[in-house]
Input
Amino acid sequence: MAGRVKDEDIALVRDRTSIVDVISETVTLRSAGGGNLKGLCPFHDEKTPSFNVSPARNVYFCHGCGQGGDAIKFLMDAEHLSFIESLERLAGKAGLQLRYDTETGAPATPRPQVGQKQRLIAAHAAAVEFYRDQLGSPGARKAREFLAERGFGRDAAEKYGCGFAPDSWDALAKHLRLKGFTAEELTTAGLCKPARSGSLIDRFRRRLLWPIRDLSGDVIGFGARKLFDDDDGPKYLNTPETPIYKKSHVLYGIDHAKREIAKRGRAVIVEGYTDVMACHEAGEPTAVATCGTAFGVDHIQVLRRLLMDSDSFTGEIIYTFDGDAAGQKAALRAFEEDQRFVGRTFIAVSPDNMDPCELRLARGDLAVRDMIAGREPLVDFALRQTISRFDLDTVEGRVEAMRRAAPLVAKIKDREKRPEYARKLAGDLGMDLDPVQRAVNNALRGEAAEQRAPQARTAPDSPQRLVEREALKLALQEPVLAGPMFDAVGSENYGDPLLQSVRDSIAHAGGVSSSTGGVVWIEKVRDCCPDMGGQMLVGELAVEPLYVDGQVDPRYVQVTLARLQGGALATRIRDLKSKVQRLNPVANKDQYLALAGELFSLEQQARALREQAAGEL
Output
């Protein structure tokens, strides 16, 4: 039976893994200065990037929610994997074979089994191959015709992994069982389901299939389109919710589109699988689609991270909806969700209410690109659709339309645009500007009152606290240089209790002198922290840039530690002076002289430290 992974193998995986490559699969990273990178945190919703990555130390930390660690920890948190599953995923990408110490003391051997998630992904990968091979069979003629009628030949089918589920109740089940997958695994994966007889049958039958991939490119489910009139099932049938497939988080085509979305700063939202294919083939490779559910909050969070949608970056979301009533309703719902984006949001409606696939067939690739280029701001569309429901020839209709439309203007994130849209709304309604502006202002006040909540503000760090943090950063980031100099300065020199706790944890981890640095050292200190606050602070300090230009040298360490001790001494001197001043030198002669002597000694030490710390931090 396999035991724990050998420590040297864990260290080798960490050494061979680029945390930037791992995190970039799901988060767009941009330079944060000092060699660090930043992006929108994948673990909580935020508008301004607080998620920092340090390539030099192969660690990450979010200043917003406190999550931090190495590449193994990132996969554990981002994809809900166990430590072993994350380690095996990274080892596989690095081409490494993990060895395990056995409990009996026998020689280390490769692990014979993998975690559930990897098994489910492996089953889907095998299913993709099976279905893809079936697409070329005689029974799949209808599927090939369906693709061809929509402008997709063999190359496109292969590019997007299209397949066909044959006219059989258990062809896939038998195929995958022969490959070693259990009935429980196939049922959990959503690929098969138990029949009344107790046997296993395929979930998809006589249907054209599209594999649905996650951001990393792993197949996690399928979308299946009905082809035959005697199929009494739904037009589209998707994989059910499974441990790896959550439809509210999934966007079809995201594996193809993610790099172009980040590069171009925009994403195009379409409604179907063939629409995604049509847009990509027409030269708009940023298109994605939801899978059996409406575009919602979780989808938005996926795209915001790719777009780096923040207060300092303006990306574009372009919705494509049919011009019918259902499409208009979807667009208005999208406007409500649009408030979660800082970037600009648009709508593109194709001529004659054609979807992108139909438009490409009818008018060619250029027409698809022109449709998207001709997008209009979603707020314009939302306002037009809102006021169109009222009779503007009547006073009652104009007033009610104003009441319904004013909150939309109030929700526009770019506050400088609100007055212009208020004027536009007044013109569209045929009303004076003043009542429309009042309605917008009232909506703004109402929204602000709902959202207003006391905001806890952290007081700016004092100069001494900044020095204390800098010393700890040196210990975590540059332990080889900090070494004995850091260890010689005790925790009594730290005035902040949490910083003092981290200093004690460094000592409990064996001291800086015992470390050669890297992720292992940071994790060791983190593990020694007695509470979550200290663990979060270690992760934060491990990626926070040092206040030094260029390379850190021993002189910088010496100056920092001298200023650390000098600040602590200054506090002790101030307290001692206060105590001496309160004493009567006649009535308390002995105590007065003793304290005065101690004060003189401390001031001598402080003078020496000031000389060491000459120069700016």
